[in-house]
Each structure stands twice: as structure tokens, then as C-alpha cells.
Amino acid sequence: MKDLFEKIYKDKGPLGKWASQAEGYFVFPKLEGEISNRMKFQGKDVITWSINDYLGLANHPEVRKVDAEAAAQYGSAYPMGARMMSGHTDLHEQLQNELASFVSKEAAYLLNFGYQGMVSTIDALVSKNDIIVYDVDAHACIIDGVRLHMGKRFTYKHNDVVSLEKNLERATKMAEQTGGGILVISEGVFGMRGEQGRLKEIVALKQKFNFRLFVDDAHGFGTLGATGAGAGEEQGVQDDIDVYFATFAKSLASTGAFIAGDKEIIDYLKYNLRSQMFAKSLQMQLVAGALKRLDMLRTMPELKAKLWENVNALQSGLKERGFDIGTTQSCVTPVYLKGSIPEAMALVKDLRENYGIFCSIVVYPVIPKGLILLRLIPTATHTLEDVSETLNAFDAIRERLENGTYKRLSASVMAAMGEE
């Protein structure tokens, strides 16, 4: 019999094998200073494009004031216990009611964390006789929620409505045999590519198939739609989303999440969500802080307007200079380049050390081999000067990538890893 840990000693995984070269710099980096458009990385000032603080609320003085007052009043423990037992308050109810109203749903329920809440919501919505159909590029939290499902599941090609329809035909035949129902899961905005889920087209399929739609709108909430209510509002189909999910970790610059839908569905979920039934309630300072942030989202449209001024300047500038930013329809701005993982390391180091630009780097296995994805997240705190500096830096690093500079610089890394 093998030692359970034998596989760990032999294979650190596709990302783990780079740990000695990458940790502390390319992965698990330490940004310092107040969350803003410019922070410090290893003692140097950098323009930060990797913070999901879309509306610039993280260090807004009004937000900081409410957070501090709530911490002083309630501490970091209150309320103690799970919501069903001893962790329920008027402020939790108030936040839920205001969130439901904002996203045009009858009811909402708070979740401690987005990832945890998504996994648990999927688990609660389906039984072994039900069928799940979901986008192949769904976020890891959706994939992990689907893994808990003891019934059948199908993936459809990313944002491919024809593929979805074919899989709905398969799911319908199977559900007729099992006596179950069908849950379709999409994202409002796919956080890596920036594409909006094709919610309008998905909803149209309800005329032909009997299914319920669950949408993860983490990146759409606060950034899309006339009021900021998300991708459903943007596409005119908010009423047709059966269960709506969003997190506080993006536009609201905090911790927590919520689900929203018809009251009867939300009532069912709040009595069956294991991640909430058996976990401590969201602490009061986060609830009070979320109420303030939501109020600012509703009453200060200039925040979203400034965000989109920066988004449009950055994305149009990149396209004008010939960069491939895919088909993003959101604030998420991916820049696709061709190169190896060691080249990507050399490129990003150059970008950070010599040009003062900090953005996230994504490589295989998240994206196909031979591709480098630099992911930029514009926020309301960025300036047009930040955009201009970044565009000039990207011109320079593209030239060095194409002329082989990074390939030469990365040779020692590749040799150390035994790579050719």
C-alpha cells in the first residue's frame, strides 16, 4: 500500500512546481499601502491593476468612517452563533431587504463568503434526480458546487447557445426518466475573459425547455446595468433569472455575498443552506459596512461613471495599439500574449520592476499552453495618467517579448526546472 503523501512528494501540480521561482513575487505577492490605484510592491510604487475595488469604495472616507464606528460599537464577534440559532439581527434583515429591492427580487439571503455560498446553494437547489447544465468556463466555486451533485451534469461550450440547446435536449430526456428538473448555471460576467454570459439568449430557451436559471454575477453587480444591478439588468432579463447571486468582494469592497429570488425559493434556501445553517453569522461590522456601501452604490452614480471612463480609455487604447483583449464586455480587461511560463515570469518582472505596473498574470493550466494572459481590473480610483503610463509600458514589453529578450532572460529559470 502506498503512503498517502507519496503523490504529493513526487508531483507538486502544474502550478506548485513553480513555487520556488514564483512564490512571493508572481504568486502570493504582498501589496502594501492603502487599497488604491497606486500601492507599493517590494518597496516600489506601482500602478495596481489587480484589485477588484471597482467603485473605489475600499478606502473611501465615508466607508472607512462607518466601518470604524461599527467595529467600535459591535466589535468583531457580534453576533455569535449561526443565523438560525443566535446570530440573527435587524440589520441582517435590513441588508437583505435592501439588496433584494436593488436587484429587483422579492427576497434575498446573506452568505458569509461568495465561494462557500455558491457551493452550498447549488447543493441545496438540486437532488440526485435533477440535471445540471453549466458553462464549461464557469468559476471554480460553481465547478465545486456541481461536484457535490449526485445526479447527472452536462457542460456546454463557453457562451455557445447552440451547445447549450443540445445539452438541454439531452438533459430533458434524462429528467423525464429520473423525474427530476433542470438547473442551468451561467455567470453574469466571466471573470477571466470579461465576457458577459449570454443571459438574454439563455432566457429565450425557456420558451422551448423547462429549466431554472442560476446566475453568478460577482463581476456584474455594481458595474453593469443602468442602476448597477448587474448583467441581468444590462441585458433586460433580470426578472427571468430565477436565483441571482453576487458577492461583496468586488464592487462593495468587503466580505460576504447574497442570493436573491422569489420569496418562497429564498425561504427554502435559508433553511437548507448547510454552509449558513452550520456557520457563524456574518459579523455586524461587515453588515453595517455593506449597508453603507450599497447606499453609495445607489446614490452616487458618478462612481460607476468614473469606472467606465477608465475602462473605456484603457480598452480602447489597448485595441488601438493592436493588443488582443478578446471579446470582453465588462470592466475585466484581459491582454493575450504568446509565450511560455518562464517568458511570462520574465515579462511580469520587467513590467513591475522597470515600469511600475502591477497586474495579475495567468498561465497554464488556467489557460492553454503557450498563452500569457495579463488581467487588468480598472477601478474608479484610476486616472487617465495611469492608463497612459500602462499603455506605454505594454508597448515596451510586447516588443521585448517578440524580439526574444524574455526568452533569453528566462533560460536560467527553464534550466533550473529541467525544461527545454
From TrEMBL:
Family matches, as Pfam families: Aminotran_1_2 (PF00155)
UniProt domain Aminotransferase class I/classII large: residue ranges: 44-393
MF-aspect GO terms: glycine C-acetyltransferase activity; ligase activity; pyridoxal phosphate binding
Names of the cofactor(s): pyridoxal 5'-phosphate
Keywords from the UniProt entry: Acyltransferase, Ligase, Transferase
InterPro entries, per the entry: Aminotransferase_I/II_large (IPR004839), AON_synthase_class-II (IPR050087), PyrdxlP-dep_Trfase (IPR015424), PyrdxlP-dep_Trfase_major (IPR015421), PyrdxlP-dep_Trfase_small (IPR015422)
Enzyme Commission number: 2.3.1.29
SUPFAM superfamilies for the chain: PLP-dependent transferases
Full protein name: 2-amino-3-ketobutyrate coenzyme A ligase
Species per Swiss-Prot/TrEMBL record: Algibacter lectus
